[in-house]
Structures are given as C-alpha cells and as structure tokens.
Structure prediction request, 361 residues.
Amino acid sequence: MKDEMVYIRMRHRVQATISQNVKIGDLAQIVANDDVRQLVSVIPIHQVIKEDKKLIVIDVMKVIKAINEKYPNFEVQTMGVAQTIIEVFIKKKSIKPVYFIAVWLLLFIGAGLAVMNFHEDVSMQEVHQKLYEIITGEENPKPLLLQIPYSIGLGLGMILFFNHLFKKRINEEPSPLEVEMFNYQQALDHYVSVHENSESETKINDH
Amino acid sequence: MFPFMKIVKVKRKSMIINYTIAIILGLGGGLAVGAGFVAFLTVLGVIPRLTQLTKTKNYIRFYEWGVIVGAVTGSWISLREPIFRLPSILVVFIGLFAGVFVGLLAAALTEVLNVFPILAKRVGVAEKITYLLMAIVFGKIFGSLFHWIYFVDR
Prediction:
C-alpha cells in the first residue's frame, strides 16, 4: 500500500568534505509528514572517498531507488533539476599574492596598451584636434583640455557599466559581470551533470 | 538652333544622372553604416544598461532619438567642419562624456567576450574580481593619459 507521499527537489550544488557520508537530506529538499521526512532525510546516498573526483553527480533516480529499497510504501514525487552536483571541498589553497599581483599587472598593462592601440587605430588624436578646433576656433596640437576629461570618463564609463565602485554598488541590481559569472557557472554545471553522470550516456550497442 | 546648345543639354542630362548616382550611393552607404552602428550598439547593450542604472525605462524612445540625432550631427560636423568659436571650457564636458561612452563600449566588449568569468575561474580569484576590474579601469585611464600627454610627442 502506497500511502505516504514524499516530495523531493534536488539541490543544484552541494559542498561536501572528504569522507563525508552524503545523505538525502543534504542533497534535496524534502516535503512530507514530519516523521517520514526524518526517515527519508537520513538515508545515505554516497560516501565521499579520496579517489572521488572533485565533482560528483548524483542522479535523482539513485535517490528514488534508495528510498524505494528502504521504504517501499513511500511514493516519491520529484520536481526541479534531475541531478545534484556534489563539490568535494578539498582544503582550499589560497592563491599566492604574487600570482594575484602578476595578474593585476597583466590586466593593467594590457588594458593600457589596448586603449593606446585603439586610439592610434581610429586616429583619435586627429579627431580630438579637429573637435577642439571646431568648438573653440583655435588650433591646438595637444588639446589636453579635451583629452584629460576624456581619459577620466573612460574609466568612469567602465565603472558605470559594471556597477562596481570597489565594494560599493551604484544600485542594487546584479551587475552584468555577476550575471555573466552565474551563466558561466550554470553552463559548467550543465556540462558536468551530463558528462560526469554515468547514467545519462549509455551505449546501447557496442561496436 | 546652335549646335552647342545640344551639347549643353546632353551635358546637363549626364550631370543629372551623375547626381542621381551620387545620391543613391551616398544614401546606400549611409544606410549601411547607420544600420551597422545601431546593430553594434544593440549587441553591446549599452543603452539598456544605462536605462537600468538610471531606472528610466520609459524614456528609451528618447534615448533612441538621442543616438540618431547624435550620429547625424556628428557626421555633419565631421564632413562640413564648421567653426563655432565657443568657450573652451565646453570641451571638458564633451571630453568627459565622450570618454564615458567609449568606456561603456570597452566594458561591454570585455563582457561580451566573456573574459572575466573564465579568467576568474582559471586563476581562482572569484571573490577578488572587483580588484581585477579596477586593474583594467586604472590601466585604461593610465594608458589613455600616457598616450595623450607623452606618447603623441614621440
């Protein structure tokens, strides 16, 4: 008799430590009667061992199977994503400041060089000279009055776009950079959940 | 009828044809460049970003017209080169706004090319990404100033 309904929603990403015994309660949100939920959430699913890769994919089918084996009279309803990615939390290596400084300098010099090349490429100097002459009527080979505000505005525009002034935000919406980071992570997760999941790719005929 | 009248008439006819061709060529070229410019702006998403920051979504029609009027004025100025003789303090504002616009374009381009997420993942500095952003911003400002103040004299 199937009388107890268990609703399960797999979480997207879960962090686990090495030698942790991952239970259903860690992997998914469960909605059921209180005592049923207690029973279900402590069912072990995966023992993280040293040989595991950094990312482990747990399919929802494995969870359903585990519940069915232990409590055949529970009816499981799933919703949401079909896989959870377990990220094994290896002791975090903090990045050396030397590397960080090197990357910082790389970006600094690269950005500066890129903007100089861009100015040369589009003959910005001539355009500025002409613009200065058009507005003021005077000829000026180095119209710094135009060019220094231009340079400051260049940085200002980039800050405006990314909505970041160091830690301070200009308004509350997520910046395009954060959205882009999220999209990238999503794409990585999707790739991992398909390719690292042994259940999702099966060869029917072996040649 | 004098014979040269005929020549003048033929010449006028060919002139009209030439003008027509020139007008069609100019119109076609302008159309292509204008459409390309708008497509470029749309892909980079600078205007949506600005409306999002200033919460002025309702005025987006006016922003479109701002771009159009700006492009037409710019092309007229660059082709005719009029002289206005205005006070030179005005160029400070024009320079600042021009810089902000180019900065927006540069930032949008970096973003479209997806440089940051990959870099942050590879180097593992996802939480310090603001500082990397500042590296690019300062690099742009420094490079630009260096170019105008020192490099152009070499």
In short: Residues 97-191 of chain A form one domain. Helices of chain A lie at 24-27, 34-41, 60-70, 97-121, 124-136, 144-162, 176-195. Chain A touches chain B through 66 residues (CB under 8 Å).
